[in-house]
Structure formats: structure tokens, C-alpha cells
Amino acid sequence: MSAQTFQPIPARPAPVKTEGLVAWIRTNLFGDIRTSIGTLVIGAALLYILPPFLKWAFINAIWAKDYDACHTAAGACWGVVAEKFRIIIFGRYPFEEQWRPLVATTALLGLLIASCMRAFWKSWLAILWIAVLAFFFTVMYGGILGLSRVETDRWGGLPLTILLASLSMSMAFPIALVIALGRRSTLPAIRSVCTIYVELIRGVPLISVLFMASFMFPLLMPQGFNIDVLVRVLAGITVFAAAYMAEVIRGGLQAIPKGQVEAAATLGLSYWQTQRKIVLPQALAMVVPGIMNNFISTFKDTSLVTIVSLYELTGAMSLALNSDANWRPFKIEGYLFIALIYFAFCFSMSRYSQWIEKQVNKSKLR
Known about the structure:
Elements: H1 21-28, H2 33-59, H3 67-72, H4 79-90, H5 99-115, H6 125-141, H7 157-183, H8 188-202, H9 206-216, H10 229-254, H11 258-266, H12 271-286, H13 288-301, H14 313-322, H15 331-360
């Protein structure tokens, strides 16, 4: 028997680290040759653009409320935001009463944040919504409890934006759910009505819907009967958002295998029991990104209500600057401030959507 010579195994390379900042950069920015070239090109563009922008926005910027200094400065004039802050945020609401929209908006934002937390997903959440909305309209409109009356056409700024976005999205979702189920109904009449609604609303821009709701709809009402412009605009945004959201939900319904519905029928479940316990939970989980995309779009579309003389966040900023010639040249700074507010809200909704996706996908990871 011949002696065997020990042959050591060649050393293998160390495992590549897959976690941490360096690993993320290697995977996402320098994963292959095309990604690396794109990273270098974008990086070079940022190096060319960012230094002048930072110099304009921060180093040479004017922060004081001094328009004479702003006119002679080489940088941005953020003093316009400080000077017109209350008009931008609260619009045409009476200056001495602006504590009311501040309190009302804080309560509404607290309600929205609470509604996004699982601990508050209880049956009493609906009662909390009714109470907070009643508080919001009572404080904003006044006329009772010693509060002076402020008509809705003087509401504006951030409170109006948040009110229109939150209420329209809350009311559009159940409508969209019913329309999506109606479009998949086996009854021709229901299916036709729902299809006509979706195609009719999606065939016109939101501006047309707001124009019809604000100016044309009152002409169809009986003499002396009038609906508040805020209610009409809110209804227009709601029906518009519901049409788009219905198609998103219908896509999720079509993704459910037909066998699951047949199995539910075999077990003796009714139509609504099947939809509530089997179909809708899966369908809605599949289209969370699409629904949130619709929410974000609706939030930004509230800026269009300016055409019907409701000055929300963007309209209030234009109103503040157009009425003062001294600060009118600094619209860029004002729009950047508005863009920052929109980005904060939209980014928060996007991150919340990702959290919802992780929650609904936990069952698939088991």
C-alpha cells in the first residue's frame, strides 16, 4: 500500500460582505459596468451642479426679513418665507384668528397619524374620526362657542390642503371598492353603470371636474338652493380619485385565482363573505403600491383647486407674493419651500406604504 502525500486545499477567497454601507454601494452603484458608468456620470453631474446651488441656497443666502438686502444679495432670499409664512400656511384666514386653523390642523394630523398605527385599528376609530372632523369644522367655521364665523371661501393654505386630501381619499376608497366589484359583477346593468362611471371620469382632466362642480353644477340647482363651494370641490376630487382607484383595485381582484372563489362557494360562503374573507384581503394586499400612488397623486392634485378661488398651499403662496411687489421677485424660494412641504408629506406616505407591504407579506415568508 503506497503512502499518501498530504495535499492542502488551496485557500479560498474570503466571503464578500453583503451588509453595511460598502456592500450597498457595491451592489447598487457599482454592480456591473453599465451601473458603474451611470454612477460616475451622475456623480460628475452632481459635483458640477451642487456646489453652485449650495452656495446660492445657503452660503450667500439672506435669512432676515429685509427685502432691500434680498434685492442686492447674490444668493437666495429665504426671508420671503419668514415674511409671508403665515399667509402661505393659513391663506386668507383672518390673521388674529389663525390659532384656530393651527389647532384644527394639529388635531386632524394627529388623527391621520393615529389611523396609520396598528394600536388604533379598533372599532372606535370611526367614532374618533367623526369627533375630530366635527371639532375641525367647528373650530374652522365658528359661529358658536363665541367664535367668529369664517366662511369656507376664506379657508386656505396647509389646513385646506390636508382637509381636501384626507377627506377625498377617505371617501374615495369605499366608493372605488364598490365600483371595482361592480365592474366584475355578472349583472350587466351594474357592470355597465360602473364601467360608464370609470370611463367618463377618467376621460376628462381634474380641472374640468372641478370647473363643472364649482361653476356649472350650481346652474342646475333650483333657484335659491346653493351648496358650499368647498363641498362641491371635495365631491369633485372624491369622484375623480375613486375612478382611478377603482381600476387599481380591479387589477388586484383579477389576480385572485378563480379556484379560490369556487372553493368558497363550495364551502357555502355567500358572495359578500367570500369577498370580505378571501378575495379582498388578498387583492388589496397586492395593490398597496398602486393605492398609495393614487393617494399621493390626489394629495398633489389638491393644488388645482386654485382655479375655483380656493387658495390651498400653492395658491396661498402665489396670493402672498402677488399682492406684495417687494417680495414678488422671490417666487423661486417660495416654491422651493412649498415643494419641501409636499415632499415631506409624499415621502412619509411612500415610507408608510413600504411598511404596509412588509406587514402584508409576512405570511408569504413563513
